[in-house]
Fold this sequence. Notes:
Layout: E1 2-10, E2 16-23, E3 28-32, E4 37-44, E5 50-52, H1 60-65, E6 73-74, E7 80-81, E8 85-88, E9 91-94, E10 103-104, E11 117-120, E12 124-131, E13 142-150, E14 154-163, E15 167-168, E16 172-173, E17 189-192, E18 194-200, E19 206-212, E20 224-225, H2 235-239, E21 244-249, E22 256-259, E23 266-271, E24 275-279, E25 287-288, E26 294-295, E27 302-306, E28 321-322, E29 327-337
Antiparallel strand pairs: 1-2, 2-3, 3-4, 4-5, 6-16, 7-10, 8-9, 11-12, 12-13, 13-14, 14-29, 15-28, 17-20, 17-22, 18-19, 18-21, 21-24, 22-23, 23-29, 24-27, 25-26
The chain binds alpha-D-galactopyranose.
Residues 68-69, 79, 104, 204, 244, 277, 279, 283, 302, 304 line the site of alpha-D-galactopyranose.
Amino acid sequence: xxxxxxxxxxxxxxxxxxxxxxxxxxxxxxxxxxxxxxxxxxxxxxxxxxxxxxxxxxxxxxxxxxxxxxxxxxxxxxxxxxxxxxxxxxxxxxxxxxxxxxxxxxxxxxxxxxxxxxxxxxxxxxxxxxxxxxxxxxxxxxxxxxxxxxxxxxxxxxxxxxxxxxxxxxxxxxxxxxxxxxxxxxxxxxxxxxxxxxxxxxxxxxxxxxxxxxxxxxxxxxxxxxxxxxxxxxxxxxxxxxxxxxxxxxxxxxxxxxxxxxxxxxxxxxxxxxxxxxxxxxxxxxxxxxxxxxxxxxxxxxxxxxxxxxxxxxxxxxxxxxxxxxxxxxxxxxxxxx
Length: 338
Ligand code: GLA
């Protein structure tokens, strides 16, 4: 196991960005302190050759200039909050609106754009960030940490947070996975431990309806190719130009298994979160990625483990309220085998 670091570059406003490399001889991850971004994740394929299974860029300039949150940590609240408005303890709050009429992924300057503090451990790095009271409109000074652990066969993200005033929290990682290292992701197969999903509207905001996946292209209870369904007329898929929905996890066993026959790589996602946003990179506009790679839409699958979108407006769903004096913690592991 080795951990090393190097200067990755400087942001437009002159802040230094560091790239950490964690290597256990089998897996190798490169993590930026900018957004606690997973820049590379090398995993051996069926012939033992390392494949970089996440999309990313070679320079900090590209991370700053491009949209899509490639590899980044998302907060305070991942996914959408309707109209960027909510009421907590009788007080009304207004957040930045950055996705049609709604608030998405923490706002205009979410956790993905912060430079986090870092502390190296034996096989992990603990990243920490202080989001001040009023940040993007959210109440409370929020202390948040993400520990990135390189396991023997995977990577674990341990999230925790504390606040000095009741607030909202829903942390995730926005890695774009492609188990062939590039190209269309539609030939990958997916299995989800989910029998229900949140029905979304034209802005991908939950309508409140929770629907059964059975008999629809949302049914991934048995392993199925992503390509088979991505162009269907299922309203949630059609409105989002592909998969972009929260699936409600059954609670026992891994949340998701993604496979590529070509590389032989199998990724298993386990989480303490109640949901996972399955997003087939429908809005990934054509762009240049690492090592001159061409990325375009549907070139990756994001599996964003999370609380349900807009849960602040749905009393019966698992709450994303973090109370003063309580500690938020959540854990997601992506493990790999062939
Ligand atoms: C999430 C959203 C998508 C999109 C991506 C980032 O997956 O649900 O609609 O915003 O993030 O582009």
